Sequence to fold (146 residues):
Amino acid sequence: MPATSEKQEGESESLRANHLTRIGDKEGAVAAQKLALEKTPGLGSRIDIMLTLIRLGFFFRDNSLITENIPKAERFIEEGGDWDRRNRLKVYRGLHMISIRQLKAGGALLIHALSTFTTTELTTYNDFVALTLKRVDLKKQVCLFS
Fold:
């Protein structure tokens, strides 16, 4: 019975955290997401919470929130993250690198994620392609990854 109670507590914390995230309450959302992270038992859900914290950092242009949570998300992914979450984190890392002017490294991460892009919570596919490829390289890269 305690496991069920723990799971329900984690779910209710997660709902509260997601609500605060949706309404744009940065401080409340970050605190609630961190609390939900502590109370959520499943690895997949914990990775999703880490990705949400990184998205909050992007939204509020909070570089420290991003840089604090990318390594934590990477650790969770290494513990057993699935393909989709691994790919999403690669896009998050690539966009972060581009935002801090590490264009070559960020672009390389984005190119690897191009053919399997699913990160529509950050950007549209068309904008993603525009960020990822220089116009001269577009034809070459698209043909290479097709």
